[in-house]
Design a protein that fits this description.
The complex is a heterodimer. Chain A is mainly α. Helices cover 71% and strands 0% of the residues of chain A. Chain B contains 6 helices and 36 strands. The chains are: A mainly alpha, B mainly beta. The interface between A and B is large, with 40 and 32 residues.
Chain lengths: 393, 564
Amino acid sequence: MRNRTVKNFLAIVFLVITPVVYSQSSRKDLVPVRWPDLTNLEPTVREQVKALENWVVIAARNPVIPPTGLGEDYGKLGQIYHAYSLISPAHDCYLNASVLAPKDFRWIYLLAKLDQQEGRFEDAIRRYRSARSLRPDYVAVPINLGNIYLELNRLDEAKTSFSAALELDKNNAAAHYGLGQVALSSRSYAEAIRQFEATLAQVPSANRVHYSLAMAYRGVGDLEKVKAHLAQQGSVGVRVADPLVDGLQNLIEGERLPLARGKLAFEAKRYAEAAEEFRKAVAAKPDSVIARINLGVTLSQLGDVQGAAEQFEEAIRIDPGRVNAHYNLAILLAGQGKHEQAIAHLQSALAVDPNDSSVGLLLGSELVKLGRCSEASELAAKLRTNFPCRPKE
Amino acid sequence: MRIIATVLVLLFLLGPVSVTGQRRQVVFKEVAEQVGLRFQHYNGMTGKFYLPEITGSGGALFDFDNDGDLDVFLVQGNTLEPNTQPSTTLFPWRGPETPRGRLFRNDLNAKGAQLLFTDVTSQSGIVATGYGMGVAVGDINNDGLPDLYLTNLGSNQMYLNKGGGKFTDVTKESGTDDPRWSTSASFFDYDRDGWLDLMVVNYADFTVANSPNCFASNTARDYCTPRVFRSPGNRLFHNKGNGVFEDVTVSAGVSKEFGHGLGIVTADFNNDGWIDVYVANDGDQNQLWTNQKNGTFVNEALLAGAAVNRNGQTEAGMGVDVGDFDGNGTDDIFVTHLMDEINALFVNLGQAVFEERTREAGLGMPGRRFTGFGTLFFDYDNDGWLDLFVANGAVQLIQKLVRQKNPFPLGQPNQLFRNTGKGGFVEIMDQAELQPLEVSRGAVVGDVDNDGDADVLVTNNNGPARLLLNQVGNQNHWLGLRVIGKSGRDMLGALVEIVVTENNVLRRRVRTDGSYLSGNDPRVLVGLGQSLKVKAVRVRWPGGITEEWKDVRVDQYTTLKEGR
């Protein structure tokens, strides 16, 4: 009995302290990762990527790590690469992740997404189909497939895919939009109108759809509707809900990409989204004057004058010679009737760049408001303009 | 053993066979160096990612000495930063003199049909030492000699061809300068007064001082998009006929819309007999300026369906060309774009109503892989259907090439598409002369060796000019036409209809514009397939009169003169 207990004990100890060595067969199928050149990346990003690369290199050499665990590591590194558009290494990592964890929907789906981005459509189709067998409910799969078929001009298959998406989500705007494009390609204008209108009913803010709708109305000869919809067309398109791809943005560190994304959102007049991106940029690099000025401008668009002023003031504190910060702050102050303060900032800006006509013109107008006519006149002479001015009594 | 030998002999006789079993034609042979066209483009790069350094430059095929063969002008870059020596930049200039645009005379006819170019820049009077972008060709004083307009980052130059191989800079007296960043330009007679007017496309309000640091999505430094610079607006000059042009940009209405302009092409899109203008913009809506027949234009691109892609998105319009690719008697538009976008084929349904049918025509996927610039509708195999050439080269660093330590990681292959005659195109693969990874910009079409098929001159940024001699076109029959006015000038804008049979009428236009930063052969070269004759040739002159010629002989060039 005792002997048996000892044996059992030994067996338990053996299980606990002896590392489990997993089969190496799946690892033989891994592809070598085409490591990216990180030299010119933003330092924060370089460190982030390098740390994860090192982790994966170590993990790949460690036979104790189970295939699914190593797959997770490769997948995570792939996501980081993907987030920074380092496409080839992302592809290699996803490929390895999907070999090591073939039942994990994420890696095969993201691999398909990369194939689609890169125009390897046949690979993308094959992988999306595999992904669909793992997660039939993920509506972005049939939408992406539909878009690929559309681009390949395989209209029947595109229609089938978009219809499949509608079966998963009967109000899916991206599916309606895709079906509209299929109909437009087939010159089935009435059907295109029906689908584009269904799209806009779901996402009225997707003003780019008005263009396609206008073209469909042109097809049926309704010129009034054509003009009406062209007048409403803009730059906001239909986005398919895709948590996996959207989630990649959360992996991004550093200032540069949030800045770029914020500018894009700002140009598209999506100010709340722009502010969020600029806040991320400020958080990544608190002494970034550009990030603060952009955040300030965006906040002022959102009506947050106080928040905007704080950002401009902080920018000036960091770089007292930044013309844009002074100018923007002056505009806010002038709008609040604080003309003296506005003038002070405009004078600071003009001291840095005497040729900035926008600053000069605003300063002139502020001086006029306070009846400081001789200063306005002196400035007008420099700017070769005229500031009609009446001195204050 | 004997069977194998027989098979080998058969294969040898048939030429290369592709894996699909089809006979593979070698379409082009690159001969630039061999025929004396030695030109290396210089872009002045210093590693600071200034946008102009990857934008140029173009070239022109034109017969400056009127000896019946096409000469070449190639536009050159320069340094961008003040106080920088060309020999000290990232790709140092090694030439014996400072970088400048160069004129090459074609001595084909003098040498008895042997193609040979001679650099005649120094005796030509052309001093093109600015930061050159493009070139436009047109006879501005109706003396029968083609003149040159050179666009620059900075002041442009108008060179009047005085004959005898001499040019004079008449920029100031002609009033045609535009000191901004000009790209493509076009000569056309918009008011039918018999004098060529000029439209100049401008790109971006760039200076070295106002150029910000931009970053790619991997956070590394990269080239900025033009959107970080204001778009300066285009300029229209009216030729008063006395050597002076008047800036009519505002009065003609073309100042009403702005865009980062790169490409321009003129054609009578709505078939009303008056020439319209299409401008390809980078990141902004393209413009279709329809001629109102009273000296003014209205931009109707959006309503016409030619401003944005089918999803309503603006794209990065670079080069543009126009041609009746589907043979329905209307001019269609092809615009090249950035990689990951697809190029755009706007099919003219008549009366300037367009539908974007890129993917339906088989041009969607192939264009996605590359950034297209120069592009040409031309009939490389003389089968009567207009094919397509696209000159490619990226504008943002290609990571694969960065990883390979390529010092100029923007290179991409060029592309040739054959028109199937059924409303679509197929890419002609495996063409060795199109494969080198170069940063191509301009593509210029012309029959350089006068053998009845269309050759292509390709200009490369930070690389050599390439001359692609057509090896296959004249296996079919062809018709070559020089279409000149009473004064002897090439009648740009004339519409030529070649009546092969009652049911087969080919429509071509006389032009030098289109593509990107470049000037094309003004002659009309029409492929006839197996047809040995044509019933008639009709020319609708820019003034509105139509004339018809019978018995125009095939397989040779013929001059058609207005009013005979």
